[in-house]
Amino acid sequence: MTPIGGPTLAQERKIVTEIPGPVSKELLERKAAAVAAGVAHTVPIAAVAAGGGVIVDADGNSLIDLGAGIAVTSVGNSHPKVVEAVQRQAAAFTHTCFMISPYEGYVAVAEALNRLTPGDHAKKSALFNSGAEAVENAVKIARKFTGRQAVVAFDHAYHGRTNLTMALTAKSMPYKSGFGPFASEVYRAPMSYPFHDGLSGEDAAKRAISVIDKQVGAANLAAVIIEPIQGEGGFIVPADGFLNAISEWCTANGVVFIADEVQTGFTRTGAMFASELFGIVPDLITTAKGIAGGLPLAAVTGRAEIMDATHAGGLGGTYGGNPIACAAALAAIEAFETEGFIENAKTIGEALFTRLGAMQEADARIGEVRGRGAMIAVEFVKPGTHEADPALASAVAKGCIAQGVVVLTCGTYGNIIRFLPPLTIPSDLLDEGLDVVASVLEGLK
Ligand code: PLZ
């Protein structure tokens, strides 16, 4: 019998077969035969239910979820308000196309985003289907507004897998290798990465601005796009002052400053948006992932005069702002605002920092523990150096998964384990997950 997901699912780690179990294996064989090889997976199970802090597979294993489907299920899988809203909307209508006949849900999501994103200036929003699509549109909007073409992204950046966003993304393998030619007029600047460059935010910003100024030139530059805390690149938190200096330079030079908050948005970092942690007010902000409790929805939100620079019909898409996704987003946003998710993210972050910090003190293979809120990472190095140890990160992830704890790797050098649990994970389950991480790490000595 398939269990019902959501918060009522038993909150336990329970391993009843090896992973993958026989039923999961069967599905993975069908996957290998039917699904394109390029679509890989990291946790070899057939998921049948999820909620709170667990994922249950078809063999009856219950795994602790420390990945939230890459920062998506912040309100938890199958949050009751999201389920109810989806069911209600699915029964009313599933699609009209907002560009054909508008409906309230889309407008209400735009109003909520305009209200919740940083800054009290007049804002407008447009809705799309995925993070990559939001980023593409933010660039279109910035180009139209400025009449300029160039875009600057940073080292270690991740912005998506479509053609323009591949160009913006830094890492070649697996995201770009063999998929060129890439979109033109995309330039890269050095990021602030305190663990590796040792620079103050001010000095790192000077270095980046010099590259931008000399190699691109403000007069040609439509936008600078940056993740306030880099996600796939390694949960890199820039040094204090870095983002502020870049943002101020953009304002002084008529360049649109775009914060890509696809991964950091919606309470993940202990604030509604990570930009708030650094005191920056982006001109445009891209969101997706956590926005709709697991349904595909994304947005660009920003200064009304920038958002309105595009001619009618210049933005859109068949499904952008689908009514079911919008209903889910309104329910998720209500949950974010009323159910203490910012506090949850902070509490989870403190627990992660305390446990991982203690592990670091006793283990020279852990170079750094960093992050904000429930977005925390461990960077593995060869002891006594800053040299990456991707083999260790990969072994830790595999070892944890085998014992029923889902952890994800990331980082340009693949040497980082990231923790981004659903914000509904019970604290004892988080502790148990970290016990497993500690024992796997010990076993790899
Ligand atoms: N911007 C900051 O983190 C998506 C993708 C993982 P989509 N990150 C996870 C993978 O291997 O594909 C992401 C992000 C930031 C943009 C995106 C893209 O969002 O919804 O995956 O298109």
How does this structure look, described?
This protein has 15 helices and 15 strands. It is α/β, with parallel strands linked by helices and 445 residues long. It folds into two domains: 157 residues, Alpha-Beta Complex (Aspartate Aminotransferase, domain 1); 257 residues, Aspartate Aminotransferase, domain 2 (3-Layer(aba) Sandwich), CATH 3.40.640. Strands 4-10-9-8-7-5-6 form a seven-stranded mixed sheet, sandwiched between helices. Strands 1-2-3-13 form a four-stranded mixed sheet. The protein has a four-stranded antiparallel sheet with strand order 11-12-15-14. Strand 14 and strand 15 form a beta hairpin. The radius of gyration is 21 Å and the shape is globular. It starts with 21 loop residues before the first helix and ends with a helix.
In short:
The protein is α/β, with parallel strands linked by helices and 445 residues long. 38% of the residues lie in helices and 16% in strands. The strands form 3 sheets. The protein has a 7-stranded mixed sheet with strand order 4-10-9-8-7-5-6, sandwiched between helices. Strands 1-2-3-13 form a 4-stranded mixed sheet.
Can you tell me the CATH class of the largest domain? Alpha Beta
The whole-number mean of residue pLDDT values reads: 98
Compute the CA-based radius of gyration. 21 Å
Distance between the termini: 41 Å
Q: For the record, what is the CATH homologous superfamily label of the largest domain?
A: Type I PLP-dependent aspartate aminotransferase-like (Major domain)
Number of domains: 2
